[in-house]
Give the backbone structure.
Amino acid sequence: MKRNYGLLLTVIFALTLTACAGKKKEAPEPVQETAPVVTQTNNDPYGVGMSADQLRALGIAGNPLDYTTVYFEYNSSAIDRRSEVIATAHANELRRRGGAKVKLEGHADERGTRDYNLALGERRSQAVANLMSSVGAGNSSLQVVSFGEERPVDRAHNEAAWQKNRRVEILY
């Protein structure tokens, strides 16, 4: 009787091995990871969280990336809403490009001492760099430079010229 059980167990074992050997193990399908698709709508045509009408109200006609200069009030390094939108658009572009470098050149108008204007230009370019970093542009992508009053875009000695000269230029 023991012999019959042994023979029975051997047959069952052989059948089990044969059944398992016939099945092929299917490889799992590869998972394709895709980057999230950013859809632009009429309410946010440039991916900055504002409609075209809202951008126009800030004085931005079209794509904010077309603007490479942000302006400041007299004796200030505070970034206004218009400049914030422009800097944010450039920060998003830097993040998208991954590894691109940008030089942020700070400028001041001619009023004030040379040393004061150099420091003010530095504070302005650093303010833009801090904003861009907080939005996702890497600090290693940003180079901060100050020219103070040394490189005016308008050499006139009036308020209109001084407004143009109080700026940070975003240079790729």
In short: Residues 68-172 form a domain with the 60s Ribosomal Protein L30; Chain: A; fold (CATH 3.30.1330.60). DSSP finds five helices and four strands in the chain. The first strand starts at residue 69 and ends at 71. The beta strands are 69-71, 102-107, 142-148, 167-171.
